[in-house]
Specification:
mainly alpha
Length: 111
């Protein structure tokens, strides 16, 4: 039995939310300067967002968590949704998002 420390649990959660943070930064950049500045200057989230916006990439661990959790949730959704067109839409979206994430530059993991 492996017990994770509080820091490790926080890293797992933060890594899996990276795509959502990037989307939030993009939306805030266009709608609210105050919220955008809050997000990019945040002590824990800001460095990830600034790296991405500067074109430096996404950490490898974040890519793995984002793609893994996305495919897990898509798989569960496809099992629960009986409509074939909805399954195809979800799978197509997952493939395209996975390709986008994989095409981004990869930063070394932060320690």
């Amino acid at each position: 039995l492996h017990v994770r420390s509080r820091r490790q649990r926080q890293m797992c959660i933060r890594d899996s939310t990276t795509p959502f943070l990037l989307l939030a930064a993009a939306c805030f950049m266009r709608s609210s300067k105050r919220f955008y500045l809050w997000l990019v200057e945040h002590p824990r989230l800001g460095p990830w967002i600034r790296d991405y916006l500067a074109g430096e990439g996404i950490p490898r661990k974040a890519k793995i968590y984002a793609i893994g959790l996305m495919w897990l949730s898509i798989g569960i959704s496809c099992a629960l949704v009986p409509l074939i067109w909805a399954r195809l839409f979800m799978l197509t979206s997952a493939v395209l998002v996975s390709l986008y994430i994989l095409k981004q530059k990869t930063l070394p993991d932060r320690r």
